[in-house]
Amino acid sequence: MDTKELQILKSYHHKIEQNAFDEKDIYSFLNLIRKSAKKDSPTFELGDFIVQREKHRGYINTYLLDVKAKLDKSSKEKTALAIAPVYSFDEISNNINDIMLLHKLSSFKDEVICGIILCIISLLHDVKILNKKEQIGKLTFSIQHDQIILLGILHGKNKIEITFPIINVNNTFCKIMHQTNEPVLFNDGVKIKNVHNKLIVNFN
Fold first, then answer.
1. What pLDDT is attached to residue 78?
2. What are the angstrom distances between the C-alpha of 133 and each of 55, 128, 137, 158?
3. DSSP category for residue 54
4. At what angle do helices 23-33 and 42-52 cross, to 10 degrees?
5. Which residues of the chain have pLDDT under 50?
6. How many angstroms separate the CA atoms of 2 and 26, rounded?
7. Which DSSP category does 109 fall into?
8. Is the CB of residue 2 less than 8 Å from the CB of residue 91?
């Protein structure tokens, strides 16, 4: 980073550390720090995916298309399909904090990382999953018991549909009626606001 970029990073770091950020700040923050991240790392891929969205052609896109191929194969062979999230909380947390330490800034606490991941989930809500020009699914903000999850929804052969977690975070941010172990999906807009240094999930 040059002097001006580092100055901007320090400003975002302070704002995030004080829990004074919202999803717009995280959009800009990830776009800035992905330049310091290794390709295929969580920070690089998530930042790239948020900026490029349907045009993204990196690891996450490959992961989604691989899940689609596994879905079609499992429906043909009538086998069960288990899918893990693309990145864990620790992978995202460690990668972001490594970049902070690289620029001689303090690591973020887990509570702050939870807020960052919440904003990432919101920023990726409703992104279409494309295979070439065909839409094969989408990403959706969802709440399941005590988790907020970015769910991938894919349409397979024989009209089979599968939902699977992309990333997830503990839900300390909002409560909904009839919250169960079954994910509640939100098809409308979702926005993460900050009210008195506390992140609020606003459903449009």
1. 64
2. 10, 11, 12, 20
3. G
4. 120
5. none
6. 20
7. P
8. no
